[in-house]
Amino acid sequence: MLEASQSEGINEAPSEKEGGVEKWRKAVGLFLAPALALAVYLMDLPSLSPKAHILAAVLSWTVVWWVCEPIPLAMTALFGSVLCVVFGVADAKTVFAPYADPIIYLFLGSFMLAEAMAIHGLDKRFAYGIMSIRSVGDSSSRILFTFGFICAFLSMWISNTAATAMMFPIALGIVCALADICFKNTGKQMDPRKMRFGTGMMLMTAYAASAGGIATPVGTPPNLIGIAMIERFCGVRIAFFHWMSFALPLLLLLFILLCLLIYLLHKPEVASIEGGRAFVAEQRAKLGKWTRGQKNALICFLVTVTLWLIPGFLAVLYGNTSSIAVSYSKMMPEGVAALIGASLLFLLPVDWKSRTFTLSWRQATQIDWGTLLLFGGGITLGSLMFETKLAEVVGTNLLRITGATSMWGITFSAIFIAIFVSETSSNTASANMVIPVMIALAQAAGVNPVPPAIGATLGASWGFMMPVSTPPNAIVYGSGLVPITAMLRAGIFFDILGGVMIWGCLYFLLPLVGLS
Questions:
Q1: Is the separation of the CB atoms in 276 and 138 below 8 Å?
Q2: Using CA atoms, how far apart are residues 14 and 504, in angstroms rounded to an integer?
Q3: Which has fewest Cβ within 10 Å: 205, 335, 380, 391?
């Protein structure tokens, strides 16, 4: 089962056989998007510049197609970019430049690493190793919890994207391994792409990685942006462990919420698998000794992980603004680190005599190129929203609608405005746009701007609804195990419930640590 699943390409699109609801959704979306875009374009929106007005119409079209999927998501991203050029939002060079953004190369390198791990069976070795841990046992729910905990912990010290890229192939291996166990015990063959556990595992990987980043200043870029702006505009310095004093307890509560949400929405097909531990031991024995390909893939994987981890250690030891930390970050951004690991795959030989290396170019071309295009389009639209001030106008109007004037009222609005903006633009762009607006509004209202700024900072990392909302979402969507409707449903719940929990925790925790 596992071999079949991987040979067929588990990262392909879901099955072509769709029910009436899916066909209806796609048909409606196909015609609704241009109609909605035309309606937005014809609206009288004096607060928007001409380019921002056109972008709002293009964004309406693109989002509807992303939700309804009448054409592949990657082509929707490209089409949205084309519309921006055709209707003069920006020139072609500006619009298509984000498709070569360094984060795209982080995807490229990590996907090649994942492909090599799958080809040589390293993902199976990792998967069965995790499943053989005594505390995990044969419980599918404990497997889900343990894996999510690992993802969240890793993303405290490296970016959520790097953590997801690191754990993604292992998650795929676990899903396929569970399908194997189900087949062994029931005799019923299960397609990993149709398993509730598969969808839950992918969402847990992405969501736990994104949530874990809030716990430390170096966990995700918005944290550093927020801390810098708070110090510059509010005169309040938040030290590394000062941030953790409220963010770490918040993460623990949010992780519990995430586990409950994923379990309830995507309850595993089997709760306890009799003989599962024995089966895992049997499969580990079948793997035999480590092959040269597995050793090479592991070396490339560990080199990349080490390069990803070094900035966090430098920040802890010397500070975020130290010359050594800044120099290393410039010299070795995450995308470059991923490409170094990927390049080693083509240099480390499996058989030198036949000039066979760990990964061939033919094998490398099997990665999910559509996800690279999808996220490139997302970066493009997010950048244009920021440059045309569309995001700022939307955020300000939303705040005006809420009518919030108190410190905690503005904080509540800041969290959800940042969440809303982060669904259609990168978390970095969302933080850069929303945080200064919230600080200015709080100061104008005569209240402490620090809690609203922190709320906006955390909200900027809390977009979970769309594949383009955050890089981890795009990575797991590329697996083919996560239907867009499943991501939307789980994302809406986690956006709303998580946003409320963030506000509640800040309300109680910030006074305790002297930040309100």
A1: yes
A2: 39
A3: 335
- The pLDDT of residue 345 is 95
251 phi and psi angles, rounded to 5 deg: -60, -45
List Cα–Cα distances, 247 to 237, 297, 343, 416, in angstroms: 15, 35, 37, 18
DSSP string, 332-376: S-HHHHHHHHHHHHTTSEEETTTTEESS-HHHHTTS-HHHHHHHH
- Dihedral through CA 296, CA 301, CA 306, CA 312, nearest 10? 180
Query: For residues 459 and 468, is the Cβ–Cβ distance under 8 A?
Result: no
DSSP three-state, residue 479: coil
Residue type, 318: Y
Q: Over the stretch 87-110, which tens digit does the pLDDT of each residue have?
A: 999 999 999 998 888 878 877 888
Helical segments of 132-275, H only: 140-155, 160-186, 196-212, 221-229, 240-265
The whole-number pLDDT of residue 16 equals 45
pLDDT of residue 185: 65
Cβ atoms 372, 77 nearer than 8 A: no
Q: For residue 202, what are its two tokens? A: 């992918």
Among 211, 218, 110, 205, which Cα is nearest to 159's? 218
**Count of Cβ atoms closer than 10 Å to residue 419 Cβ:** 27
Angle of helix 221-229 versus helix 427-444 axis, rounded to 10: 30
3-state secondary structure of 90: coil
Beta-strand pair 356-357/349-351: antiparallel
Q: What is the pLDDT of residue 186?
A: 64
| Stretch (H or E) spanning 351 | strand 349-351
Say what the alpha-carbon torsion angle 404, 410, 415, 416 is, to the nearest 10 degrees. Answer: 10
Task: Look up residue 357 and give its DSSP letter.
Answer: E
Domain boundaries, the chain: 102-296, 297-366
Tokens at 189, concatenated: 């063959």
Amino acid at 137: G
Q: Which residue's structure tokens are 């709002």? A: 56
The answer to whether 159 touches 472, Cβ cutoff 8 Å, is: no
For residue 428 the two structure tokens come to 């970095």
For the question of whether the overall pTM of this predicted structure is more than 0.70, the answer is: no
Residue ranges for the chain with pLDDT beneath 70: 1-22, 131, 137-138, 182-192, 271-280, 320, 395, 398-399, 402, 424-426, 429
Tokens 């509540």 belong to residue: 412
Contacts 24+ apart (CB under 8 A), 495-498: 495/419, 495/423, 495/462, 495/463, 495/464, 495/465, 497/257, 497/261, 498/211, 498/254, 498/257, 498/258, 498/462, 498/464
The span from the CA of 300 to the CA of 293, in Å, is 11
Integer Cα distance of 464 and 382 in angstroms? 15
The two tokens of residue 151 are: 């993802």
